[in-house]
Write a structure and sequence with these properties.
This protein is of the alpha/beta class. It contains seven helices and eight strands; from the N terminus they run βββαβααβαβαβαβα. The protein starts with 19 loop residues before the first strand and ends in a 22-residue tail after the last helix. The structure holds S-adenosylmethionine (SAM).
Length: 217
């Protein structure tokens, strides 16, 4: 039987199945005093992440949390979202959600289900220098390389997470000088920039042909 987290062959006419996973990291993250903390689980973030990952074909959705009571809360949310047939389409399904204690466990699991060590890509509103443009990460995804995207709760990912990541994405910006999006807003925008089908026309294959489109982004 196929593991529920195994990325399925793409059903939208994309040439190469994407091997992309995401993690909502609750630890290690920073509070507003720059102290390292474990953030509490927010059910709205979790339900929205479940739905957004379904739209963009991202699998698994990791929830990284070391605290048992918070992990139990996520289990209850998964059960609630999965059992409720009436709302499953509007809230999303959660059989692709995986709860892990730590980033180490997340990486080990992702390596198994994505079929190779993923490129670990952190996100932040901050300008750290040397950040990776979206087009480069899209190119990795289009080549079928495994990618794990990290999103931080509270005031964002700890420096230790940036240090162990392979890349940090450029911050999203509206040019106002204030770039600090709520995590679920950033989550949806980043996935759209990396995975929206209209940004990957070369990967689109018309049924019964091998023709692709033009790259324009
Ligand atoms: C409340 S924000 C934290 C903002 C924080 N000051 C920071 O360093 O990113 C929580 C998370 O949303 C994501 N995020 C927020 N704004 C972003 C932006 N402009 N670009 C990319 N990711 C962003 C990041 O994953 C961040 O860890």
């Amino acid at each position: 039987m196929t593991h529920p987290c195994t990325p399925s062959p793409d059903s939208r006419g994309l040439a190469a199945p994407r091997r992309v996973a995401v993690a909502l990291v609750h630890h290690p993250v920073r509070d507003r005093n720059e102290q390292e903390i474990a953030a509490s689980v927010d059910w709205v973030d979790f339900f929205d992440a479940g739905r957004v990952t379904l739209v963009y074909g991202v699998n698994p959705l990791y929830v990284v949390h070391p605290v048992e009571s918070q992990k139990a809360l996520v289990e209850r949310l998964i059960t609630h979202g999965t059992k409720d047939d009436r709302t499953s389409e509007t809230r999303g399904r959660f059989d692709h959600a995986v709860i892990v204690d730590s980033l180490d466990e997340c990486l080990a699991h992702a390596e198994g289900v994505l079929g190779g060590r993923p490129l670990v890509v952190a996100t932040t509103a901050r300008r750290l220098g040397g950040q990776r443009p979206y087009a480069q990460v899209r190119a990795s995804i289009d080549r079928g390389e495994p990618v794990l995207l990290l999103f931080g709760k509270a005031s964002g990912l700890s420096d230790s997470v940036f240090e162990r990541s392979d890349a940090v994405l450029e911050p999203l910006s509206g040019g106002t000088g204030f770039d600090h999006l709520p995590v679920r807003g950033a989550f949806a925008i980043v996935l759209d920039r990396l995975l929206a089908s209209d940004r990957h026309p070369d990967a689109l294959v018309a049924p019964g042909t091998s023709e692709g489109g033009q790259e324009h982004g």
